[in-house]
Specification:
By secondary structure, this protein is an all-beta fold. The protein has no helices and 5 strands.
């Protein structure tokens, strides 16, 4: 099944498994691109050309981020330097 959307966000859904109230979706997003200039990102590279566990300051908090491109740019974080409560 292929959803209707416009490139570059085209995602092919290759398998959907239905359970009682839970379902799983498997997508093929291709190989991840970690090279900073190819993502693109303005953050400096931390390992070779990759931006991995780089520090990014947002409104006074420093976040550890990894930049990756999976068809479009992503900035992934696993936490900040300081432990803070964030109201979303």
């Amino acid at each position: 099944m292929t959803p209707t959307c416009h490139p570059p966000s085209l995602i092919y859904i290759s398998d959907i498994i239905w359970h009682t109230f839970i379902f799983q979706v498997k997508v093929d997003m291709g190989e991840p691109i970690l090279s900073g200039p190819e993502i693109p990102t303005k953050l400096p590279a931390t390992r070779n050309k990759a931006v991995v566990q780089a520090e990014l300051e947002v409104e006074g908090s420093t976040w550890h981020v990894t930049c990756v491109r999976m068809g479009n740019p992503h900035c992934v974080t696993f936490g900040s330097k300081e432990l803070k409560v964030i109201n979303l």
